[in-house]
Design brief:
alpha+beta, Chloramphenicol Acetyltransferase, 2 domains, 12 helices, 25% strand, Spermidine hydroxycinnamoyl transferase, acyltransferase activity, transferring groups other than amino-acyl groups, Plant_Fungal_Acyltransferase
């Protein structure tokens, strides 16, 4: 469906520092893939596709001066560790065309499925040495209706979602001829705290292998099972109903600070997944959450820090407790896990991962891959984009119709995304085993 017309290497427009950057411990724990997103636009009538491509090339080249580490390459240094060579080798830009129309994706609800994956450049991770893999991959696809899609992949070793959005926002400003806003802070030493304590002060279950299904000794069979992705919308009214439900007068009600819409929606998703999977009462299930450290460590990380400043945290419950108790129970487990992440907890976390060999932390979150931790059945992972400015990618060529994940690589992976309308509604993108997704979709609305 998608035909590649040309492939370009885009290098920084000016000379940039030629240096080796040491990665932070948090960078070192991230997955060896590119985090992929898609941006759909309707081109203004007076802007031809060729001009949009030229805008993209020129602005990208200028953006790579400010964000010059993204033009470099990662190199292995042993023990699963990496270092970043800032050598200006450049990013990859692919020009492509598709016979489809934007409406074809609209009808499907912009579900991140196989058709969506064709809108981002492909990487043969297992066949290409890591020092040959560009850190930024961009594909500009022209549709038969005249609209376009900007498909973007950025190495997760270098950035979290907040930093990725920072790059896209500044890149778009450059494309529009505007002054850049927040300059990136590239020094990874910000996340080094000097001499750490001799032993961790906390258990850090988030760094241990996730629970297995009751009666199974490994997760190899679960890894092989086919998955299906759904994109489900929650209206503002439905979001408010879930929030009210989480704050009903139950033994788990928090009288000091009511549960947030995120805690309510995430708890609802966790419960629906466990029920759809048919878990036994004694089944342990772990919900993995992304927690931003920027204002949780002392001193706080400066605004504009460009790197990973998010760690995975885990809420744990048995399926029996999750389903027999009200929604507030799930929300309380989520809040408890997030509130653990204090300055002291973060320093303890960094001590655990500050080891010579961290290969035990490395994984490829892709369907069917057999190495690394598996976060699927009976577990799940939720990433929330509700606090990020995901719709600020205005390159000056037309209206942004949709922004979202381009792919979801494993069972249990999910996103909570603010809707384009800005009316308080949310989108929930969810990947589950094909045998479970139908029941999940039904429960998702019935149990509000």
């Amino acid at each position: 469906m998608v035909n590649v017309a040309a492939t370009y290497t885009v290098q920084p427009a000016e000379s940039t520092p030629n240096e080796i950057l040491q990665l932070s411990e948090i960078d070192q724990t991230k997955t060896l893939i590119h985090a992929s997103t898609v941006y759909f636009y309707r081109l203004n009538e007076d802007i031809p596709h060729s001009y949009a491509l030229q805008i993209l090339k020129e602005s990208m080249s200028k953006a790579l001066v400010l964000f010059y580490p993204l033009a470099g390459r990662l190199h292995e240094i042993g023990g699963g560790r990496l270092e970043l060579h800032c050598n200006a080798e450049g990013a990859t830009l692919v020009e492509a065309e598709s016979e489809l129309m934007i409406e074809d994706y609209t009808i499907q609800g912009f579900v991140p499925n196989e058709a969506m994956r064709e809108l981002i450049p492909k990487v043969e991770y297992h066949a290409t040495p890591i020092h040959e893999q560009p850190l930024v991959l961009v594909q500009l696809t022209k549709f038969s209706c005249g609209g376009i899609c900007l498909g973007l992949g950025i190495s997760h070793i270098l950035v979290d979602g907040i930093s990725a959005m920072h790059f896209v926002s500044e890149w778009a400003k450059i494309a529009c001829g505007e002054m850049t806003g927040i300059f990136p802070i590239l020094d990874r030493k910000i996340l080094r705290f000097g001499e750490p304590p001799s032993t961790p002060k906390f258990g850090h279950i988030e760094l241990t292998p996730p629970p297995l299904l009751v009666g199974q000794s490994d997760n190899m069979e679960e890894r092989k099972k086919p998955t299906t992705v759904a994109m489900l919308k929650l209206s503002k009214q439905q979001v408010d109903e879930l929030k009210s439900k989480a704050n009903e007068d139950t033994p788990y009600k928090n009288t000091i600070r009511p549960y947030t819409r995120y805690e309510a929606v995430a708890g609802h998703m966790w419960r629906c997944a466990s029920k759809a999977r048919g878990h036994k009462n004694e089944q342990l299930t772990r919900l993995h959450l992304a927690v931003d450290l920027r204002n949780r460590i002392q001193p706080p990380i400066p605004k504009g820090y460009f790197g990973n400043a998010v760690i995975r945290q885990a809420a744990v419950a048995t399926a029996g407790d999750l389903l027999s108790n009200p929604l507030a129970y799930a929300s309380s487990r989520i809040r408890e896990s997030v509130e653990k992440v204090t300055d002291e907890y973060i320093r303890s976390y960094l001590l655990v991962v500050n080891q010579q060999d961290i290969s035990w932390l490395r994984n490829f979150p892709t369907e069917g891959y057999s190495l690394g931790s598996f976060y699927g059945n009976p577990n799940m992972e939720i990433t929330s984009w509700t606090s990020m400015s995901v719709y600020e990618a205005d390159f000056g060529w037309g209206d942004l119709i949709h922004m979202g994940p381009a792919e979801m690589g494993f069972d249990g992976k999910s996103f909570i995304i603010p809707s384009r309308e800005g009316d308080g509604s949310l989108m929930a993108a969810f990947c589950l085993q094909t045998d479970h997704i139908g029941t999940f979709k039904q429960l998702f609305y019935e149990e509000i």
